[in-house]
Amino acid sequence: MSVTIESAESKPRCSWSQTPDFHAYHDNEWGFPVRDDFRLFEKLCLESFQSGLSWRLILAKRENFRAAFHHFDFNKIAAFTEEDVNRLLKDEGIVRHRGKIEAVINNAKCAQALVEIEGSLATFIWRFEPAHDQRQKPQTASTSPESVALSKALKKMGWKFVGPTTVFAFMQAMGLINDHTEECAIRAEVERSREVFQRP
Fold it and tell me: How far is it, in rounded angstroms, from Cα 102 to Cα 108?
């Protein structure tokens, strides 16, 4: 069960962000709606890298991931070769997991194909935004019907490492739901951002 805590700055935050290394990410990014395709792709990739690991580790390495993967420009990543895979496997700044690295390259190609059909990743992904009255109490679930549906849709198109739990964490972070706790100081800011957000 998630609770909200007061930080040293006397700002109530979601309990997972109680350490200072999470404050900026929690206060300025997590839950705010995103429609930029490269940012959406980045988050899907980083969530897949997190599988079996901690988000703290991934966040600490995020700039290294961005440098290694051309800021998650899937058009550039789609052209990666086995030589690039071998280069990345030697990069100590990222998580050196062959399956996950190869999944990023695979998913970059899938992203290109999806953009060809839909016009953008955002157009496709935001169709899975839950209806307001169907959202569960904040931070009480690790999947949702919508994350299951989006996971299935992506897998059907060939995406890898996009299970329902990974996709749910992605939806939380990219603002498809506002999963900040009711007492969290950032919840109202995220809700205001969602209200004015122009959905693709």
Answer: 10
Q: Known binder of ligand: residue 180?
A: yes
The answer to whether 16 is a known catalytic residue is no
Q: Are 6 and 12 in contact (CB under 8 A)?
A: yes
Q: How many residues does the chain have?
A: 200
Q: How far apart are CA 156 and CA 168, in angstroms?
A: 17
**25 annotated active-site:** yes
Query: Which of 16, 25, 102, 118 is the catalytic position?
Result: 25
Q: pLDDT band for position 18 (50/70/90)?
A: confident
Summarize pLDDT for 139-150 with one digit per residue, the tens. 888 999 999 999
Residue 14 known to bind ligand: yes
Encoded amino acid at 177, one letter: I
* Domains of the chain, each with CATH number or no CATH: 35-196 (1.10.340.30)
Name the catalytic one among 42, 47, 129, 146: 47
pLDDT digits (tens, 9 = 90+) for 77-129: 999 999 999 999 999 999 999 999 999 999 999 999 999 999 999 999 999 99
**Residue from 16, 55, 102, 189 carrying the catalytic annotation:** 55
The one-letter code for the residue type at 73 is D
Determine the Cα–Cα distance for residues 19 and 135; give it in Å rounded to an integer: 27
- What pTM was estimated for this model as a whole? 0.92
